[in-house]
Write a structure and sequence with these properties.
Number of strands: 2
Number of domains: 1
Order of helices and strands: HHEEHHHHHHHHHHHHH
Distance between the termini: 30 Å
Structural class: mainly alpha
Radius of gyration: 20 Å
């Protein structure tokens, strides 16, 4: 993949898309240095982030504020900036913004899909960050935990399941009641509404992405044109797969999507339920961007690796 990355440089607007390929180097280092140690470290990070997010929510202030250039000039990315017109407080912990915290929680849910405690932490993090899509995806992973752990008959009969499910559900609902106000509920309810401004904007950027990719020359179609779409529109395509196509071309898209196909085929061959996780991950990439940023990209490959490990154990 390194030769492909170097070849692509001559056809790119900037170097932002390079992390898609070079993250593999980081991934290999992490795996060779100790996968179990990495998982243990991520657990501690998750608990620390939860504590910090709760602190931010209680104090209604951030631990630190980042200043970024925007179309309105250089602005502080503070609670007012992320609160929008409704001024909802959205925790962010150690990340630059609440979206990044929600994205981390999504990755956390995939990585610890068999760990109920961490799944609950992931759901709580998305609630604190007020990440609508994050709540949906981590909620689905929470449900899949019980679906994969018990068959339908066992679910109905198992006392252990009933205790675990309702204890977790009560904890999440109790936290949600305390953490989510009326404005947040209205924002969440608009997640699937095409009249919602953010969803309308997402569809607009999807259309723009398809149009811009259609104007690429043959080299950019294959290798992408990293940074060009953001330069033209001032935004990402709000879709991980489209951003891969735009920044890294068809070859970059295949590089990311091919492992998902392999996991799905192996899952079907060994008659496991891992293809369900692949389906959710694929949909998550439709509205999230695991390929953008070194840490998010690393998390994506660690998740893929964990799925392979799980299937190998069956």
């Amino acid at each position: 993949m390194i030769p492909l990355a170097l070849l692509s440089l001559g056809f790119w607007h900037n170097l932002n898309g390079i992390n898609v390929y070079f993250t593999i180097v980081t991934f290999i280092i992490v795996i060779s240095s100790g996968y179990d140690f990495f998982l243990k470290a991520i657990k501690y990070v998750a608990y620390i982030l939860l504590i910090l997010a709760i602190y931010e929510f209680i104090t209604k202030s951030y631990l630190f504020v980042v200043f970024r250039p925007t179309e309105w000039g250089i602005l502080p990315l503070d609670p007012k900036f992320y609160g929008g017109h409704s001024q909802i407080f959205r925790a962010k912990g150690l990340f630059e913004g609440p979206l990044a915290l929600s994205q981390f929680a999504i990755g956390l849910a995939f990585l610890f899909r068999s760990n109920l405690k961490i799944l609950v932490v992931a759901v709580l993090l998305t609630i604190l960050a007020n990440g609508r899509l994050g709540m949906v995806i981590t909620g689905v992973m929470f449900i899949l935990y019980f679906v994969s752990k018990y068959d339908l008959v066992s679910i109905i009969k198992s006392k252990k399941f009933i205790r675990l499910f309702f204890l977790s559900l009560v904890l999440i609902i109790s936290a949600a009641v305390y953490l989510i106000d009326e404005k947040s509920i209205e924002r969440i309810s608009n997640s699937f509404s095409f009249e919602d401004n953010s969803n309308t904007a997402r569809l607009y950027y999807w259309e723009e992405a398809i149009n811009i990719f259609g104007d690429y020359n043959i080299f950019n179609i294959l290798l992408g044109n990293s940074g060009y779409f953001r330069e033209v529109t001032g935004n990402s395509a709000e879709n991980g797969w489209l951003m891969l196509l735009l920044d890294n071309g068809i070859l970059g898209l295949l590089f990311y999507i091919f492992p998902l196909l392999i996991v799905s085929l192996l899952s079907l061959k060994h008659k496991t339920g891992h293809w369900l996780y692949v389906g959710v991950l694929f949909l998550a990439m439709m509205v999230q961007t695991f390929n953008l940023g070194v840490s998010a990209s690393l998390l994506y490959w660690i998740i893929i690796y964990s799925l392979f490990i799980d299937i190998k154990k069956t």
